[in-house]
Amino acid sequence: MIVYGVALLSACLILGMLLGEALGVALNVEANVGGVGIAMLFLVLASNSDKFKSLVDGASGAGIQFWSAMYIPIVVAMAARQNVVAAFEGGMLAVVAGVAAVIVSFALVPVISKIGGSKVSIEEKQ
Amino acid sequence: MEILETVFVRNSLVVAFAVIGITIWLSYFLADRLTNGRIHGSAIAIALGLIAAYFGGRATGGSTGVADITLLGGIGLMGGGMMRDFAIVATAFGVKLSELKKAGLAGVVSIFAGVVVSFIVGAVVAVLYGYTDPVTVTTIGAGAVTYIVGPVTGSALGAESDIIALSVAAGLIKSILVMIGTPLVAKSIGLDNPQSAMVFGGLMGTTSGVAAGLAATDPKLVPYGAMTATFYTGVGCLLGPSILFFIVNAVL
Fold first, then answer.
1. Is there a single domain that holds both residue A51 and residue A100?
2. Do A19 and A73 lie in a common domain?
3. Residues A74, A96 within the same domain
4. Which residues of A touch B122 (CB under 8 A)?
5. Region for residue B122 given its phi and psi (left: phi exceeds 0; alpha: psi -120 to 50; beta: otherwise)
């Protein structure tokens, strides 16, 4: 049943949000601390566990896949409802932040590839 | 006109599905025809969304972009926090933990390094532009991670919509630049084998950017980059509104 998958997805999100909210209270910050990330973790664990097989296989899985495929459309709608007029004067900031993040990340590719490469070869020698 | 308004308002969410669907069709058409697939259709669609939000805001004087236009009110619901978080969590479905083992140490290091480094760069730029509020700086930093980690972090922390819009724009610039720039720098950063492709996916993290950029470089590398990039958004959503926010809060 498709709705089983949707229900599992909902349960993961609500659990994650509750934990995030509780973490916020515990840490005394007015924020949902990592709720979405925690929910994603739950869904990964559920979809990798045998116990939840009936909730993620076949039609049930299709219920989750549908929402996964709706991700970009929903992000487009999200972009369309932001206060872009107010953000406009800060536009250059967005460009600079985006460009700088890419340049630094590009530069790190050979560095981290090397670190990983040498460690792998050390393990192989052992 | 009255009939149109009645029907559109009464079925606002359904109207939003149709309008967004048409926008995405148009975006993929433009991506194909104008950029030869070099820029992914999704990036064009998000850019169109931001542009539409600008004109929507200009026309109505409201603060929720296109959603302030009576006939398009449903976009506010479709793009709201609840639907967004629901769909993002769904993208974690099908992620195999065994893939992470295949990515190896370098892959895992690259995911965390990618999130943290992009965040720091974005946050520093925000501070250089004169922002001092920790919530704002964290949201913009998270936007430099990806256009989805920004809004997720921003709404978890209660950031203003214009700051969230900036974070989406920063993430979008990053994604587009990865799509276009990857084939140009591939040689100089040693992007010619599965290992470096996995590190690349983990460092950049923007799934659409990584997939399009690697496809233009060498299509055989796409699955390796995508493997690590899949984990990136999740790690970003986890770290952004938690540890990274606490660090910013302590520094500022």
1. no
2. yes
3. no
4. 97, 100-101
5. alpha
**Are A35 and B241 a contacting pair at CB < 8 A?**
yes
How many folded domains does chain A comprise?
2
The verdict on A44 touching B (C-beta cutoff 8 Å) is yes
Domain containing residue A29: 1-81
> Are A92 and A77 in a shared domain?
no
Q: Cβ neighbours of residue B189 under 8 Å, at least 6 residues apart?
A: A106, A107, A109, A110, B196, B200
A29-42 mean pLDDT: 88
Which of A76, A91, A108 is nearest residue B24 as measured by Cβ atoms?
A: A76
Chain A residue numbers with beta carbons less than 8 Å from the beta carbon of B45 are: 72, 76
Same domain, A54 and A77: yes
Does residue A77 sit in the same domain as residue A89? no
Per-residue pLDDT reduced to its tens digit, B158-208: 999 999 999 999 999 999 899 888 988 998 998 988 888 999 999 999 888
Distance CA B40, CA B180 (A): 10
Q: Which residue has the higher pLDDT, B94 or B213?
A: B213
What's the residue count for chain A?
Answer: 126
Return mean pLDDT, chain A. Answer: 86
Burial label for A92, CB within 10 Å (0-12, 13-18, 19+), is exposed
d(CA A63, CA A57): 10
pTM: 0.86
A25 in contact with B at a CB cutoff of 8 Å? no
pLDDT exceeds 50 at position A121: no
- Give yes or no for residue A123 having a pLDDT over 70: no
Task: Say if residue A32 is in the same domain as residue A71.
Answer: yes
Cβ atoms A98, B173 nearer than 8 A: yes
Establish if A110 touches chain B: CB-CB under 8 angstroms.
yes
Q: What is the largest CA-CA distance in chain A?
A: 59
Q: Report the complex ipTM.
A: 0.86
Cα distances (angstroms) measured from residue A121 to each of A115, A126, B109, B112: 10, 9, 16, 22
Q: For residue B16, what are its two tokens? A: 């939003």
